[in-house]
Predict the structure.
Amino acid sequence: MPQLPRQRRGDRGRAKIYALHAPEVECIGKGKARTRFEFGCKVSLATSNRPAPGGQFLIGARALPGNPFDGHTLAAQIARTERITGIPVERAHVDRGYRGHDADTQRVFVSGQKRGVTPTIRREIRRRAGVEPVIGHMKTDGHLGRNFLAGAAGDAINVSLAAAGHSSVSSASG
């Protein structure tokens, strides 16, 4: 870690080290008043929009090292979900962090979007708010909030195990 002695408090960018024990940790800007930043690895989750009997079932989860822009990861996540399920994704409902995405604009709907939104799609967008508690529960109960596995491979393994654990608990309680 030769850059550590030269590192200053105001430094920004990929070269900055946030944790000595885990140099792969990145600063993720949240854009919220209470918690402006989180430190760790960005995660992408895919769920179905239909409510399952036991709770929200996770279809796809993956770690995104390097802190990419949310919109640049959407097309790959949709393709991965289609590959896993074998069913084409009709509509994807995402939060406002995905504005300027790289996916098909005809089937992606951003929260707060007004154009081209039918009553059915509006109802589905409101249903998307049910995903936020899933993320919160995975951070606390699924141990996504603190990863004890080392490196970028450990981040990917932790996300996969947390998603599998959440989905198995959801299916067992239903």
Q: What stands out?
A: The chain has four helices and six strands. The helical segments are 74-85, 119-127, 131-140, 151-173. The longest helix spans residues 151-173.
